Amino acid sequence: MYAPSSVDAPRIHTPDFITESALTIPIYGMLGEDGRPYEGADPSGVAKEIVLAMHDAAVFTRLLDERMVAAQRQGRLSFYLTATGEEAATVGSAAGLEPDDMILPQYREQGALRYRGFTAAQFMDQLFATEDDLGKGRQMPVHYGSRALSYMTVSSPLATQIPQAAGYAYGQKLAGEGRCSICYFGEGAASEGDFHAALNMAAVIRCPVIFFCRNNGYAISTPVSEQYAGDGVAARGVGYGVRSIRVDGNDFLAVYLATQEARRQAVSEGVPVLIEAMTYRLGAHSTSDDPSGYRSRKEEEAWQRFDPIARIRAFMEAQGWWDAERDEALRQGYRDEILAAMKTAEAKPAPSLARLIEDVYAAPPWNLTEQYEALREQVRANPDAYPKTAGRIE
Amino acid sequence: MSRNRVLTGSRAMVEAIAQEMRVDPTVFVMGEDVGPYGGIFSSTTGLLDEFGEERVRDTPISETAFIGAGVGAAMAGMRPIVELMFVDFFGVCMDAIYNLAAKNTYFSGGNSKVPMVLMTATGGGYSDAGQHSQTLHATFAHLPGMKVVAPSNAYDAKGLMTSAIRDDAPVLYMFHKGLQGLAWMAAPEGASTEVPEDPYAIPFGEARVVREGGDVTIVAISMTVHHALAAAEALAKDGVDAEVIDLRSLVPLDREAVLASVRKTGRLVVADEDYRSFGLTAEIIASVAETDPGLLKSAPRRVACPDIPIPYSRPMERFALPDAEKIRAAVQQTLNRAVA
Q1: Region A24-347: CATH code
Q2: Does B142 qualify as catalytic in the annotation?
Q3: Is there a cis peptide before residue B252, judged by omega within 30 degrees of 0?
Q4: Residue A35 contacts residue A312 (beta carbons within 8 Å)
């Protein structure tokens, strides 16, 4: 069966191509740079407690990132990734979901995880691979995961979470529990085949999934001008038959309301939705990256005025919900909590080495047991050669 | 009352899938041409009619998409059975297999399970060349976190499929096209077997002694089990009594079954249609040698595909692939050549 368009489409009789700029998608925004609602934008649909909760999670995330970059510079941590400047995109979208909707992150969504309730201690247990880490000390820093908070453990290979999210959502649909999944990725990851494959399939087999692109301007050093030639990522959704919206990613209210509406459509109609959040990665890609080689201070400073936290704070103050005193109390409280949690985690024991061979299979098969025993004997026989390991043998 | 019928490999697979789908609503099938077509290798014939398109899901042609989606659905609490049409096509979806399916449980600290079955067709012998004919057992068995099984007959095809669906780990179910009983590809005698109607599960990691013998051990899997049995019959005429072991699963591996046999015979031939180097044949020989090099009275031999892409030309392909005669000759070498 051919698509109806190939049969019923109107005929033209000159070879006129549709231009690449024929579809230019507007940006949905609620708050201007100064935090004041645009004319015609009605923020009354966002409850005060939601705004305060989003701001709270964003401030925590900002302070956590600042502290952990410093810790990495001090040599206390091997690696870290900040989300600075993108807090509205990740926190605002998480706020627009139900708590048991599934989150399949890329790796820069600590704001969403914090909004769900991940504690300072839980962040630190993962970052410092303590014996209390939910991932048992196996994955590199910032690869968080929490079954209790419906947050899939981060995988390193880019964009692989996108087809998984489609499948997760298909499973949710078959289970009939009225849930959906959200999948985060950057505009760089959207160049991977996985993105295209997943959007097409999700549209065809109707998966209730929200594809959430954080278009933050850079894929490590590659700017969007070298990433794609068309109108960003949102325009692609239309081609795959996926409803799409572009939103100001530094506007908490717009991200929240767009995600809430996307969720409603995904769950009630069983369809995928694409959100492209336009934002800016104010920090480096990771602690292994130095942006001064590929972008100017001037550019970074220009984006500071779009800081999402400053914008939502101005909105909150204008509503009479917030002031400088409360702001400083919140920040000081979180600085203290984060520092204390870090010190606690640094003093905690590492996971037992026996955990090395758990969870590869439900029970360790004979070959893993043999291999573990052989390594254990090696360390036991030469403890001086393994000063960090010998103490963790049971 | 359970009846035994003679079924083809594909019918046995379908029966296992259908029986599990009837009792477990989380089981569903996804892949290319699994719906009305019933699977290119008849592994899903008739399922659509019984279970509908939501649970027997034809997908767009993107292994990247639907195998990745299978991993996601498995973590959502479903038990997807996903078909990779030819194992040769694994290149476009290997990330979902070895970085996600195989590792998500471990990296989640055991908090996420991936109970997915990835069934895929292996093997050559029908002139489709090296992008449709590979076996690739070792490629997957090498990677931690997955189980890998490969049935040689219909009885095992059903029992191993049932176990695969019920397992909480990702299982790679590698079926040889030549054992499916397809109209266009003759199966060896013995591939179609009596199969009980009632559901049953064959535990993974339990090899089967398919022929007892005292002179030499032939370890085989999938199609090479049939070659080994034919070789054993030929050897019997020469007064050589070969024992044939069907491993049935690579991961977990039944090392004890191999050792028990070699302790008895002292001679070892390993046959696998996969490439020779760095593969199953080497693993079996190494596991025997590591345990006790004194077990072997002569140098072990392996019969496998040479380390070349499998060619189209029928004489070239036949020249390359393992067969009964090559196994027979390898056995003769183990009898004639003592360890120095």
Answers
A1: 3.40.50.970
A2: no
A3: yes
A4: yes
Q: Which residues of chain B are within 8 Å of residue A138 when distances are taken between CB atoms?
A: 106-107, 109
For residue B93, give the chain A residue with the closest CA.
Answer: A194
- Where are the domains positioned within chain B? 4-196, 208-336
Residues 359-388 of A with CB under 8 A from B: 359-362, 365-367
Q: Residues A293, A299, A304, A307: is their CA dihedral positive or negative? A: negative
Q: How far apart are CA B208 and CA B128, in angstroms?
A: 31
B78 and A174: CB-CB below 8 Å? Answer: yes
Name residue, tokens 């996926």.
Answer: A242
Instruction: With CB atoms and an 8 Å threshold, state whether B106 touches A198.
Output: no
Evaluate whether B183 touches B220 at the Cβ level (below 8 Å): no
Count CA within 13 A, CB hemisphere, residue B15.
Answer: 23
CB contact under 8 A, B76 and A175: yes
Query: Considering the domain B4-196 in this protein, what is its CATH number?
Result: 3.40.50.970
Out of B68, B72, B96, the one facing A171 most closely (by C-beta) is B72
Q: Does A133 touch chain B (CB under 8 A)?
A: yes
The upper half-sphere exposure of residue A10, i.e. CA atoms within 13 Å in the direction of its Cβ, equals 2
Q: What value of ipTM does the predicted structure carry?
A: 0.89
C-alpha span between A375 and A248 (Å, rounded): 53
pLDDT tens for chain A, 394 residues: list them.
456 566 778 899 999 999 988 889 999 999 999 999 999 999 999 999 999 999 999 999 999 999 999 999 999 999 999 999 999 999 999 999 999 999 999 999 999 999 999 999 999 999 999 999 999 999 999 999 999 999 999 999 999 999 999 999 999 999 999 999 999 999 999 999 999 999 999 999 999 999 999 999 999 999 999 999 999 999 999 999 999 999 999 999 999 999 999 999 999 999 999 999 999 999 999 998 999 999 999 999 999 999 999 999 999 999 999 999 999 999 999 999 999 999 999 999 999 888 999 999 999 999 999 999 999 999 899 889 888 887 777 7
DSSP H or E run through A152: none
CB proximity A103 to B under 8 Å = no
Pairing of strands B4-7, B193-196: antiparallel
In CATH terms, the fold of domain B208-336 is: Rossmann fold (3.40.50)
CB contact under 8 A, B78 and A367: no
Q: How many Å apart are CA A365 and CA B206, to the nearest integer?
A: 13
| Residue B277 touches chain A, beta carbons under 8 Å | no
The answer to whether B4-196 and B208-336 have equal CATH topology is yes
Q: Using the beta-carbon criterion (under 8 Å), do B108 and A153 form an inter-chain contact?
A: yes
User: What are the sequence ranges of the domains in chain A?
Assistant: 24-347, 353-392
Q: What is the separation, in whole angstroms, between the first and last Cα of chain B?
A: 58
